[in-house]
Design goal:
alpha+beta; Immunoglobulin-like; 2 helices; globular
Length: about 210
Amino acid sequence: MTSSAHAARLVIAAAAAGCAAILTTACGLTGSTTAPPGGPASTPASSPAASTSAPASAPGPTSTAQSGPPPCATSALQATVAGTDGAAAGSTYYPIQFRNISTATCNLYGYPGVSFVTGAGGSQIGIPADENPVHPRQFIDLAPGQTAHAELRVVSAGVYPPGDCGMVTGHWLRIYPPNQTAPLYASFTASTCTKAEQVLSVETVVAGSSGP
């Protein structure tokens, strides 16, 4: 073999080796994009922006307001205690009547505050009435001249031991209409306790002037 032919073969071999190296590198780059064995590539962690979604639930409204007439102001009402609605087990029931004496419709919602007092504008006697939840609270629209009522239960003060009661005769009730801070006064006579025995309890305001 001549020296020129031998040199030509060396050049061809070198070129073939170079091509093989290039092909190997290219294949390696292509293989790097495949998922690792055993499953897909791992998902990156959620970005902070994902935490801006709204909570699953939000607290509901707490207001007891309704669209319609405004609450009855104390100045719009007249309070009286009518004759008995009945008696049972040492207790007597009386309707506290609220009459709308204004020229506009208003509403009553919930319980009045009631206690014996020494006179109109006088000091409190004993403890105030507690709330009797026999009826659910409801909005009572009261047109001018209309009346709603809350049933007042009066326990006979004589059922309590004298030393625990400190019995006296009360002649006046102080009555706060529902959701109002100014009182009304109504003439009402009954025995009551000057000490912490529960003589009075009151129900929520309902429509009408008295019980069934």
